[in-house]
Amino acid sequence: MPYELLNGLSPAEVEQILELGSRLIVPSGTLLFRLGDPADRLFLTERGRIRLTLPMHLRGKEENVLAEERSPGQTVGWSALIPPYRFTLSAAASLDTEVIALPQKALREYMAARPAVGCKIALNLAVVIGHRLQLFQTMWLREMERTVQARSA
Amino acid sequence: MEMFLTILGVSVFIFGLGIAAVRFQPSMRLESSDSALETERARVNAVAPTLVSSKHAAVKPVALPRQIPIELLLLQIENHVRLEQAAAESFLEFPTHALLYSKTTSPFVN
Hints:
The complex is a heterodimer of chains A (153) and B (110). In chain A, α2 (104-113) packs across α3 (115-152). Chain A contains three helices and eight strands, in the order αββββββββαα. In chain A, 38% of the residues lie in helices and 31% in strands. The longest helix of chain A is centred in the C-terminal third of the chain and has 38 residues, at 115-152. Chain A is an alpha+beta fold and 153 residues long. In chain A, the strands form two sheets. Chain A has a four-stranded antiparallel β-sheet. Chain B folds into two domains: 1-57; 64-110. Chain B has 110 residues and is mostly helical. The relative contact order of chain B is 0.05. Chain B is built from three helices and no strands. The chains are: A alpha+beta (153), B mainly alpha (110).
C-alpha cells in the first residue's frame, strides 16, 4: 500500500514507521475523532473510506456536513503534527474501514531521531496540506464568483 | 294614596335611571377604548408608518418556500461538495480560467 505521507521512504523505513502504530478497524458509521479533540494520533487509511465533516446549523439542528473524503493510502488527522494539535474536522468511517493509527509522540520522536526521514515526511505532509489548501481555495473562489454573479444579476 | 303614588313614581324613575345607566356604561367604555386605540395607532403610524400596518394597509400573504426534507438537503449538499471538489481537482491538474469558472450541474445552486 503506497501511503502518501511515506512517499520516497525506503521499505525498511516504511516498516519501522508502521510498527510505531496499531491497526484499527473502524466499522461503517463509527466516529474516529471529533472536531476540537486533541490530535494525539495521525491515521493512514489502509482500506475503506473516511468522511471528514464540519458541523453546520440546518433548520435549528446541528448536522455534520461533508467537507472531504479520504481513500486508502491517504492521510487523516495531520493536525497531530501541526500546532495547536487539535482536529479541525470530525472524521467517521463511511464504509468498514481499516486505518493505521500512529501516535503523535512516537512519530515525532522517530522523526527527530532520523532527520533525513523526518524531512521527507515533513515534505510529504506539506504536499498533503498544500493540496488541501489549493483545493479549498479553488472551491472558495468558485463560490465567490457565483455569489458575485448572483448579486450583480 | 297620593303619597304612595309619589313614592311609586319616584321608585320607577330611579329604577329606570339605573337600567339606563347600566346599559349606557359599556358603550361609553367601548367608545373610550376605541378612541384610545385610534390614538395609539396614529402614534405608531407616525413613528413607523411602513413597518406597522395601518388600518388601510393590506397584509401581503407571505409565500413560504417549500421545505425539502432535511435528509434530501444534506444529500444535495454532499453532492454539491463532491461536484465542486471534482471541479477544483480538474482546475488544479490543468489550471485554466475556463476550468476555474466552469458551470456546475449541482442542483444545490441551480
